[in-house]
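Worked example

This section walks through a single chain of length 119. The input is the sequence exactly as stored; nothing has been trimmed or padded.
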Amino acid sequence: MNRIIAKQKQRLKRKKSIRKNISGTPERPRLSVYRSNRYVYVQAIDDTNGITLAAVNNLQADFKTVKSTVAEAGKLGEALGAKLKALNIEAAVFDRNGFRYHGVIKALADGVRSAGIRF
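Given that input, the structure is written out below as tokens.
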């Protein structure tokens, strides 16, 4: 149990060091990613106004069949990219939330990029 708590503390420490350097604006929102063992959540956040512009996760009815795997995480990214395109947003800041840029997180980022959003 102590190993799990230590890993969580390390992730939160990385998260704090990342978040002090990046911030989202209405023109360039922050794409915040959270990955649990079962679900993946992505939000486009405008930090200046404190609002969420768009959000996608695999709990929603449209994405119930999408699993939290590398092969299917790109679908969530493409869906978020489409929502951002509908809001006329061309660029974003990627907030990996302390997670390693590897696996599901990388696949999700590649999906957003394939939809035409620049990081």
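What to look for: The two ends are 37 Å apart (CA to CA).
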